[in-house]
Write a structure and sequence with these properties.
0% strand; mainly alpha; 16 helices; Rhopdopsin 7-helix transmembrane proteins
């Protein structure tokens, strides 16, 4: 008799089993429903803000924050569909992560705009001191004043993450191309270990800055309902990063294993993208409530004001969108916040002598006392000769910082008044 066992189909290997649900077509469809639901909700809100663009100083930054949801949702859903193509997933993650870093800076800048900028914050925080506490990571520090140096530190901590994140994305793409990068591989010979360490340090500074700024201004931001805004933005950015990091640790600990011919690292990345798609639905609802467009409609509490008897200038949705996408202000802000002349720049923008006095009263803003000697007037005249550099600042949209003295006053005005 013929051996019938030779004609029978081989039994599936038990050690592999079926593919996990997270990489199945059903999971991809569920993630797609969540992703597109969040995209529709947030895109509609973006349109409403651009249609009722009555306070560009606020809404430009709000729209930039809202774009986070469509970008996260779409790239996460697309990555889930390419779960077996590690290189494609890493490319898509890098694009998503670059915008993630940008959102931190955008959110802090929006909070500054809510409070009227550096000058208004200095005036309102005059005399306030930081109270050391654990949740702001200052428990081991001495109390310090909320002055100009403090504000500069907050902006720099957020901006450094905007610089580090894209640089690490470039490093990731380069090492992937040379087969020196593997997600979840903590070997010293693999770039993933070093990229993760740098990411965590940079992210830690940015998170600490956000918490510190919130602790310093929570009562000042009260009219803008900051709790929901802070929680939603931080949850999207920080939870997404650390949950992905945690999944890769689970792979190394053997908690996530290969199944159905799918590598453990691929399963971990699939879980990450699937979870993000679901989280974006919650994020879209949180951002909808936190940044509702009705506050900026005609007569809204934050719509801004126009001179009595004048109509508010109208502009198209496309033009308003172009205004929000223009990166010029971001470049300018990066230059001035890391410039050695930041103190002069900030003080030159202070509105009124009282604000200047407040800035001067903080110990961290300056260690030199004001003097009105003849020598200072001579120095002012010398500074006034450096007008050639003013053209360079004008091209960047910055004030002429070379012609501003240590008190934030223009040299021309000072010299003229003394004459």
């Amino acid at each position: 008799m013929p051996d019938i066992t030779s004609t029978m189909a081989p039994e599936p290997e038990e050690e592999h089993g079926d593919k996990p649900f997270v990489v199945s077509p059903a999971a991809w469809a569920i993630a797609g429903v969540c992703a597109w639901a969040s995209i529709i909700i947030t895109t509609g809100q973006i349109y409403k803000h651009l249609k009722h663009y009555n306070n560009p100083r606020h809404q430009k930054w709000i729209v930039r924050i809202l774009f986070m949801v469509p970008i996260y949702s779409f790239f996460s859903w697309l990555s889930l569909g390419y779960y077996d193509n590690t290189h494609m997933i890493l490319y898509l993650d890098c694009l998503r992560n670059v915008y993630e870093a940008f959102v931190i800076y955008v959110f802090v800048t929006l909070c500054f705009e809510y409070l009227g900028g550096e000058s208004a914050i200095l005036a309102k925080c005059n005399g306030r001191m930081n109270v050391p506490m654990c949740y702001t990571c200052t428990c081991c520090l001495q109390p310090f004043p909320y002055g100009l140096q403090f504000l500069n530190f907050i902006r720099q901590c957020c901006l450094q993450f905007c610089i580090v994140k894209p640089l690490m994305a470039v490093v990731t793409l380069a090492t992937v191309a040379t087969d020196h990068y593997e997600d979840g591989n903590f070997s010293p010979d693999n770039a993933y270990l070093y990229v993760s360490i740098i990411y965590n340090i940079s992210l830690g500074f940015a998170l600490s800055a956000l918490l510190l700024f919130y602790a310093a201004t929570t009562d000042l931001l009260a009219p803008y309902k900051p709790k929901l805004k802070f929680f939603t933005v931080k949850a999207v950015i920080f939870f997404a990063f650390w949950q992905g990091f945690g999944l890769m640790i689970a792979v190394n600990l053997g908690m996530i294993k290969a199944q159905g011919g799918v590598e453990a690292s691929e399963i971990a990345m699939a879980y990450q993208n699937f979870i993000i798609c679901g989280e974006m639905v919650l994020a879209s609802v949180g951002l909808y409530k936190g940044f509702h467009y009705s506050e900026y409609e005609e007569g809204g509490i934050h719509a801004g004001t126009t001179p009595e008897g004048e109509d508010r200038p109208k502009s198209s949705v496309i033009k308003n969108l172009g205004n929000t996408l223009n990166p010029k202000d971001v470049i300018q802000d990066t230059v001035r916040n890391f410039s050695k002349k930041y103190k002069k720049y900030a003080r030159s923008s202070l509105d009124g002598a009282s604000a200047v006095d407040n800035a001067e009263s903080d110990e961290d803003t300056d260690t030199e006392q004001d003097v009105t000697s003849v020598g200072d007037r001579k120095k002012a005249k010398k500074k006034n000769k450096k007008r050639g550099k003013a053209k360079g600042y004008a091209k960047m949209g910055l004030p002429d910082m070379e012609n501003v003295d240590e008190d934030g006053n223009e040299v021309d005005n000072e010299v003229d008044s003394m004459a």
